[in-house]
Amino acid sequence: MAPMWLLLAFLLGLAVGSFLNVVIHRLPKGETLGGRSRCPHCGRTLSPLDLVPVFSYLALRGRCRYCQGPISPRYPLVEGLTGGLFLLTALRFPPSLEALFTFLFLSFLVALAFIDLDTYELPDPLTYGLLLLGLVGAWAFRFPLPFQPEGANLGALDGALLSAGLMALIAGYGAFFLRRFGEGRPEVPVGPHQVHMAALLGALLGPGVGMALAFLSWALSARTGRPVVLPDRLTLLLFPLIPLAPLLLPPLGNLWGEGWEGLAALAALKGGLIAAGGLALAGGLYWAFRGDPGETEGEEEPVAMGYGDVKLMGALGAWLGPYALLALFLGVFSGALFGLLLRKRTLPFGPHLALGGVVAFFYGEALVRAYLAYLGVS
Asked: Could you list the residue range(s) of the whole structural domain that residue 51 is in?
């Protein structure tokens, strides 16, 4: 790889990292991303010499030039991390649209990870922006995935829906267990109850019908002002039985043909996850424009995982396809490891999921091959 391209990518990463610091600081507060940077201590407008990525921090020894207030090491960390990730991209791709889209992919993940560290929230403009970017890249020039499935390759759209559906159901079952199998309060007009309905009906009737019926529930809830849903005790308890039915009752699987029980089970699971993912992403987009539904009266309900993680997982599915599952596994492993090291019971999951996404994007295929070789599977 040409040294000039590597140097250019690294310097570009440092500059983009400086802008990401602005995004991380201002976006959660609803502030504009334009305008000059100021010292958070004395409010003085910073000069261009104060804003040279990494080098200004080192030259000023981590303190403001005007008031000597401390500058957070977060700033050079974000700049250096982004520069390193851009350099890694340049080692993988020559100057191209693929490299540009990868730069954008990594920039979104860095911003999301650090915002989640600060606020325990993943902003909708970034999660949906990353999802849209992956779908546009797939549709326009089949990078990093084709838009629709091609042969054994999973398409970006299906990857997004399957990944979002999987994460939404993980969140749903987690909250269900924390409630000790009690029924949660359904949101009006749309919320997790419709997602769980879509999963059950999608597994039974196919993803299209499952989504259509769940959207009908959404419309009726909006029309009446009251939740028109199936209880979680029904949907969440029945859903896993649908894919298992062809395996436990071979005559059902044989409806597909002799020996096709496994295919029938996979089709039911895929239908449920796609339907659930479609409702989760559509419902999240509705609330992004409609505004936070706010707190309802009564005791606060336990939450195992926020829907920001669901949207981020959906975005990773558009970029990674089946390797989004590897990103999820790596994120869970990283989160558990840091939880043990820091002795914290509650940690934002977004940074760990973003880390898993980066590793899966660059090294997913190699890791899967190494694991299969370890198992003795060619």
From this structure: 1-91
Domain presence at residue 30: yes
Please state the length of the chain: 378
Q: pTM of the prediction? A: 0.94
Q: How many domains does the chain divide into?
A: 1
335 compared with 256, residue with greater pLDDT = 335
Q: Which of 41-50, 94-103, 162-171, 237-246 has the lowest mean pLDDT?
A: 41-50
